[in-house]
Design a protein that fits this description.
The chain is of the alpha+beta class and 305 residues long. It folds into 2 domains: 2-200, no CATH class; 215-281, no CATH class. 30% of the residues lie in helices and 29% in strands. The strands form 2 sheets. A 7-stranded mixed β-barrel has the order 1-2-6-5-4-10-7. A hairpin with a 2-residue loop joins strand 8 (164-165) and strand 9 (168-169). Helix 5 packs parallel to helix 7 (264-281).
């Protein structure tokens, strides 16, 4: 699943010898300190953002390695003409005294980028130093997006981001960095602290809605997702109802909490088991008996037709 996240950038100092060695790994000619301009970028962090999602610390460490060598562009427009800078180093930086809403120590991926000092880049450098270009957004992919409450794939359970369950906040945890694509200068920050705008999965698809030919597909996917949520909700309600019919002693409120943790496969199996038990406890009785007189009970004589 693809991720886009926005953060800030800061102008850096003149690169030293070790920095130039790292930079020259990506150049075809041996560049000198006078030929390059460097700056640092805050790529992404482990705080829960406004979408109710966060990178785990391990994921940030993986992304730090993957982003080295990646190019900087504008607004995620994947064109060669938009290439402006390149990351030559990245690391995970601790934030002393900062605790995330998830309860762990704050940290973020800090990238170090360079651009060439050319006449064509003078305006870009001026905008960086003047604070006009501040926010950056990363494009990457993660392997898993899981619910912080039950550990299942986000969207496959009934837990809702931003809500609390037994005093535990629900959010989506992003695990396993699969790839890092690029990082872009963007306009609008969204994450409270780092100015991060991130879209995962269906959020990324929503961006396509503004492009020709994609609006209908995105709308259809959203309708299908809503139908899926309704289906799971109805399935959970049915399991809770059948549990009550069996009289097995599991309290209604407890059973509701149990079903919230279950996916479709487990719910279907529970529904089957409880339906069989409920059928045995309340067997189906027909009003009309088509058998012989010997099959009729004497107490039913008044109702015989």
């Amino acid at each position: 699943m693809n991720i886009k996240k926005q953060a800030g950038c800061a102008v850096g100092a003149q690169p030293g010898g070790e920095e130039m060695e790292l930079i020259n790994q990506f150049s075809r000619k041996q560049l000198t300190e006078r030929e390059v301009y460097t700056f640092a970028v805050r790529l992404c962090d482990n705080e829960i953002d406004r979408d109710g999602e966060r990178f785990e610390r391990g994921t940030l460490e993986e992304l730090a390695k993957l982003f080295v060598g990646k190019t900087g562009i504008f607004d995620h427009q994947w064109t060669a003409a938009g290439q402006t800078a390149r990351l030559y180093r990245a690391e995970v930086v601790e934030e002393p005294g900062v605790m995330t809403a998830a309860g762990d120590a704050g940290c973020y991926v800090k990238g170090y980028a360079y651009i060439l000092r050319t006449p064509g880049n003078e305006e870009l450098i001026a905008q960086l130093e003047g604070g006009i270009l501040r926010e950056v957004s990363v494009g990457c992919a993660v392997e898993q997006a899981v619910c912080s409450i039950c550990g299942k794939q986000a969207g496959s359970c009934a837990h809702k981001k931003g809500e609390s369950y037994d005093s535990k906040l629900c959010y989506t945890s992003l695990r396993g960095a699969a790839d890092a694509f690029e990082w872009s200068f963007v306009a609008v920050p969204a994450q409270p602290k780092a100015g991060v705008l991130k879209h995962k999965g269906y959020h990324a698809m929503k961006e396509l809605a503004g492009q020709e030919g994609w609006a209908h597909e995105v709308e259809l996917l959203e309708k299908q997702a809503e139908l899926g949520r309704r289906y799971l909700s109805a399935l959970r309600s049915e399991v809770v109802r059948l549990n009550g019919l069996t009289g097995e002693g599991v309290a209604h409120e407890v059973m509701e909490r149990i079903t919230e943790q279950l996916g479709e496969e487990e719910l279907l199996e529970l529904r089957r088991v409880y339906a069989e038990k409920a059928a045995k406890r309340f067997p189906l009785v027909t009003q009309l008996n088509h058998g012989g007189q010997e099959e009729r009970q004497s107490g039913d004589g008044a109702f015989l037709i």
